[in-house]
From TrEMBL:
Superkingdom in the source lineage: Bacteria
Designated name of the protein: LITAF domain-containing protein
């Protein structure tokens, strides 16, 4: 293993953990509102609108293996 930056052979393998947060915004539940309208008229539409703009946050933690150069600190 050779460092691509400085050409040193003093490279060790390290495991680093990383996390990524993704946010999903739920759109307007149009079908839900339509079904609600058919079944319950106005209260149903309000129920359908309740699902609007809901945010779902998901955090994914993953670990990856990187090669770290002891000479210059370069990770690859
Ligand atoms: Zn290096």
């Amino acid at each position: 293993m050779v460092c691509p930056r400085c050409g040193s052979h003093d490279v060790h393998i390290a495991t680093v953990s990383d996390s990524q947060t993704t946010e999903k915004v739920k759109g307007f539940g149009c079908i839900k509102a339509c079904i609600g309208w058919l079944l319950f008229s106005l209260p149903g539409i309000l129920c359908g609108l309740c699902g609007m703009g809901k945010r779902k946050r998901t955090t994914t933690v993953y670990s990856k293996v990187v090669n770290v150069c002891k000479n210059c600190g370069y990770r690859f």
